[in-house]
């Protein structure tokens, strides 16, 4: 039996009710900060005027602490490393308000990730999976006339409302959060209608 999608809301309430499940509070940068403090403050070394004997310096007084923290890349700032957290991705993500849209359903509370290759009841694939460190991994897929084969996707861009992933096969998809990604009320209503037909099919 085909898995029914979670979103089964009255169309007229979609814009309001979905906002309660799909919205995330603003957090620090799209992927969080990278690096951080450089590993401690550098202490200035003062050379003892009496530390020279016979015109020769006793040592390089200023070099003992100068390289502190150089093993951490505190200047990498916006570089993507581990991707957004699953809490930042919590919600429903769609490419478009059409029947052939792909969809991620992400539940941060349980860690559950569901993927639909389309909402054509006769040509879709339903997959369960997980998310960690910027990568979606599909563990099990059931085909209902579909032909999906990519089992992993890497997050390449994320701004809180738009999510771009690159699948292992090279295909790129940009998805929008259903509640906060700029879908109009008409588009939300259309997605609701498509899902109702999918669940009924």
Automatic annotation (TrEMBL):
Region: Disordered, residue numbers: 24-91
Biased composition annotated in UniProt, kind: Low complexity: 40-55
PROSITE patterns associated with the record: PROKAR_LIPOPROTEIN
Source taxon at top rank: Bacteria
Compositionally biased region (Gly residues): 62-80
Signal peptide annotation: 1-19
Keywords: Signal
Protein name listed in UniProt: Lipoprotein
Organism: Streptomyces millisiae
């Amino acid at each position: 039996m085909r898995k029914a999608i979670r979103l089964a809301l009255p169309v007229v309430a979609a814009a309001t009710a979905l906002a309660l499940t799909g919205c995330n509070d603003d957090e620090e940068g799209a992927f969080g900060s990278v690096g951080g403090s450089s590993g401690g403050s550098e202490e200035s070394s003062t050379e003892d005027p009496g530390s020279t004997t016979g015109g020769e310096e006793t040592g390089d007084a200023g070099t003992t602490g100068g390289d502190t923290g150089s093993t951490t890349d505190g200047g990498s700032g916006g570089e993507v490393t581990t991707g957004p957290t699953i809490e930042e991705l919590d919600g429903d993500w769609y490419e478009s308000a059409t029947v052939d849209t792909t969809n991620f359903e992400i539940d941060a509370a349980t860690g559950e990730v569901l993927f639909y290759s389309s909402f054509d009841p006769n040509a879709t694939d339903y997959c369960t999976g997980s998310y960690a460190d910027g990568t979606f991994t599909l563990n099990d897929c059931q085909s209902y006339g579909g032909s999906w084969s990519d089992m992993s996707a890497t997050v390449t861009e994320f701004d809180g409302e738009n999510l771009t992933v690159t699948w292992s096969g090279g295909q790129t998809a940009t998805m929008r959060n259903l509640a906060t990604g700029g879908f109009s009320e008409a588009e939300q209503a259309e997605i609701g209608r498509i899902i109702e037909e999918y669940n009924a099919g």
